[in-house]
Model the fold of this input.
Amino acid sequence: SSAKIVDINITGITGSVTICIEGGPTDALFHFTGGKWEELPQRSYANGQVCGVTSSFSPFAAAPRKRAEAPTNLSVTRGDKSLSISFTPGATFGVEITRYEFSLDNGKSWARVSGGDVKSPVTIAGLKNGTTYSVQLRAVNSAGSGADSAALAGKPREALLADSRGTDVPIVKDPALTLALNSDIAVRGNKVAVALVAPTSAKNKVSYYTYTLKPKTKGAATVKQTYKAKAKGTTTAILTGKPKVTYTVSVTAIYANGSRKSWTGPSLTTE
Done:
């Protein structure tokens, strides 16, 4: 920046005072404090001078406000009809962030994050469970909208366990089947939640699902439960295993005609 930095030393005054230095009509007044430049509040401009209120002194500079740089290091936590996005804020150049906005259409349109959060993480609500969204963030300050972040994919999910941590796991990998099961798995403590979404098409109706946790750790027992399948929506099983045991997850579909089909999923370790 070509801003002129001005040192001002004042003695014998306590409390807040108004500082004015030469600047342009759209400039703001900045004070270097705590290792960074911060914009002074109560900005005013008159007769070629920019003013602001401060209770500390030296140095100051008048300069145009800058838009914030893009947020980085985005990560997503899935919620029920929502996504929570954590991030590292981009440089703000001393100008206060007034809000964060998100885009779900590659930057064509933007909306304020839920709750008006101005710090990480921020929440995007009102989404559809099971739909994958491409999310971008940007910060807004008095200079305008900042740079767009890189896109991050996230898919809201129904809450399986309170405060659960889960990732999508494709249980079924058999292209010959017309029955396609989409699954979510979450681990919290020694509990494992497995959710299966009812198929949109199938040769035979599924009546029951049997969920099995087979231990790979010696000394632990197999956990098995059978649930009546929902015709629509999600059939969720919550299985209680032993702490710090590695299990292999499998699911067996029991059809109305008595036939069965089993799938083996991933291995996971309880907490």
The chain is about 0% helix and 50% strand.
